[in-house]
Automatic annotation (TrEMBL):
The name this protein goes by in its record: Polysaccharide biosynthesis tyrosine autokinase
Family matches, as NCBIfam families: eps_fam (TIGR01007)
Residue intervals of the Polysaccharide chain length determinant N-terminal domain: 1-87
Enzyme class, UniProt record, top EC level: transferase
Record keywords: ATP-binding, Cell inner membrane, Cell membrane, Kinase, Membrane, Nucleotide-binding, Transferase, Transmembrane, Transmembrane helix, Tyrosine-protein kinase
InterPro entries named in the record: AAA_dom, Bact_polysacc_biosynth/exp, LPS_length_determ_N, P-loop_NTPase, Wzc-like_C
Source lineage: Bacteria, Bacillati, Actinomycetota, Actinomycetes, Micromonosporales
Sequence intervals crossing the membrane: 12-33, 176-197
Catalytic activity: L-tyrosyl-[protein] + ATP = O-phospho-L-tyrosyl-[protein] + ADP + H(+)
Primary subcellular site in the record, as a coarse category: membrane
Length: 482
């Protein structure tokens, strides 16, 4: 995956980053509030050698630098800490005093700094003053020769003791910045990890790659689609309706040398919108002037009649068992050239009925009666009905809902079709999230139908010719229902 891919994962899971950043800031703020203020008191010592101790300046400098390192260890020794506690009652033990002392020896110099950190500002200063006094006394005692001569090393306080007026910790700005950065890094990592571990189908490119078939359409998600699933009325000018029309165009030209006239619409799982897709595809084809027959072959859970507002009590099942003729149960829907064959009664053996010779003969007869036959079938992974119907069609259209179906389920559905040599015409990503820029482009360019179009005068002869043509077309389309 390239950098843009990782950025898309972070953008998709932006809420994870936001939550971790807020947690980081909250944790930093809590730590800052609960941490007691700490003050620093410091004192700086200058280590020197009297002229009678070491005569060579260079050797004396090296000698003093080595001694400074030793004095740094002496400042944190148990002996000096016990001496400080014994001299001044600070309410601290020797170990507590020693843990508060930090020494710094500046490289290349003979300066030694001792810093004491404490939550009590006054105690920090008092401890530093006592430490400076006891340290100089201790050095003088240690360095004095047994014969009582002057010591070769002299310690002088050149700075301090002084204590900071403001606490050195906690530092709210630094803590908040660090907390925010750590939260940001954690959020980005979790977002990328979640995106990489997410096995659900998220985009059209992934769907095309998994199925190995062309992506014929991406149907955008609309909140009003559940209450008004069909692309009629106000929904006819929506972005969803335009996406279905693009699907219609791609479906008709997916293979110009071997066009599919009988199309099975299916999905991997239930609830991915295959029935809605079958109905809207049939409506879009009928709008383009094709003679379309929509068949509800999902005999277990039929929905086509409910969506179209038709009577589904008698239909395909009754035709296959020989109770009625197909022409008696085909229904016209709306004013378009769309005929519908509902599912009829629910049979006890849907798979055997759909795979029977009666079904094969019926499809052969219907192929000659319509330009395009659209068949709504059952989900592929639930039952075998969808595969049985797809085998008898010219090809199948696989519908997948974005963010619901996993890649393995889509691959299993495509394999179920390819294993019986079903021609997969293409795939459709349903309920897809469309970029705001794309949605804006469509809204800016869509056709707005005026409430009342002005009438255009026409000669009576032309009107009579148009009415006759419409009448002939109607008779041809209703031949099945007579």
């Amino acid at each position: 995956m390239d950098v843009l891919g990782y950025l898309r994962l972070v953008r998709r899971h932006w809420w994870i980053v936001l939550v971790t950043v807020m947690l980081g800031l909250g944790t930093a703020a809590l730590v800052t509030v609960r941490t007691a203020p700490r003050y620093e008191a410091s004192v700086t010592f200058f280590v020197t050698t009297p002229s009678q101790g070491v005569t060579d300046a260079y050797q004396g400098s090296l000698f003093l630098q080595q001694r400074v390192k030793s004095y740094g260890d002496l400042l944190t020794s148990d002996r000096l800490a016990q001496s400080v506690v014994a001299d001044a009652p600070l309410g601290l033990t020797a170990d507590q005093v020693r843990s508060r002392i930090h020494t710094t020896a500046t490289a290349g110099t003979v300066l030694l700094q001792a810093t004491i950190t404490d939550t009590d500002q006054t105690r920090a200063l008092k401890t530093t003053e006592t430490l400076a006094t006891k340290f100089t006394d201790l050095v003088r005692k240690v360095e004095t020769p047994p014969d009582g001569k002057a010591p070769p090393i002299k310690i002088e306080v050149v700075s301090g003791p002084r204590v900071t007026s403001n606490p050195v910790s906690p530092q709210p700005t630094r803590n908040l910045v660090l907390g925010g950065l750590l939260g940001l890094l954690l959020g980005v990592g979790l977002a990328v990890l979640r995106g990489v571990a997410d096995v659900r189908m998220r985009d059209g490119a992934g769907l095309q790659r998994v199925t190995g078939s062309p992506l014929l359409g991406e149907i955008p998600y609309e909140t009003g689609a559940r209450s008004a699933p069909l692309i009629v009325g106000d929904a006819a000018t929506s972005a969803r309706a335009e996406a279905v029309r693009k699907l219609r165009t791609n479906l008709r030209f997916v293979d110009v040398h071997e066009p599919a006239r009988v199309i099975a619409v299916t999905s991997a799982l239930q609830g991915e919108g295959k029935t809605t897709m079958a109905c809207n595809t049939a409506i879009a084809l009928a709008e383009a002037g094709w003679r379309v027959l929509l068949i509800d072959a999902d005999l277990r859970r039929p929905k086509v009649a409910d969506y179209l507002g038709l009577d589904g009590g008698v239909g395909l099942t009754d035709v296959l068992v020989g109770d009625v003729q197909v022409g008696d149960v085909v229904q016209r829907w709306g004013e378009k050239s769309l005929l519908v064959l509902p599912s009829g009664a629910t049979p006890p053996n849907p798979s055997e009925l759909l795979g029977s010779k009666s079904m094969a003969d019926l499809l052969v007869a219907l192929r000659d009666s319509a330009d395009i036959v659209v068949i709504d079938t059952a989900p592929l992974l639930a039952v075998t009905d969808g595969v049985v119907v797809a085998v008898q069609a010219d090809g199948a259209l696989l519908v997948t809902q974005q963010g619901r179906t996993s890649r393995s389920q889509v691959a299993a559905a495509a394999h179920a079709l390819s294993s019986v040599s079903v021609r997969l015409l293409g795939c459709v990503l349903n309920m897809a999230k469309v970029a705001k820029s794309d949605a804006y482009q469509y809204e800016a360019y869509k056709v707005v139908v005026p409430p009342a179009a002005p009438s255009v005068p026409a000669d009576r002869a032309g009107t009579r010719r148009g009415a006759k043509a419409v009448g002939d077309r109607t008779q041809e389309l209703t031949r099945l229902s007579r």
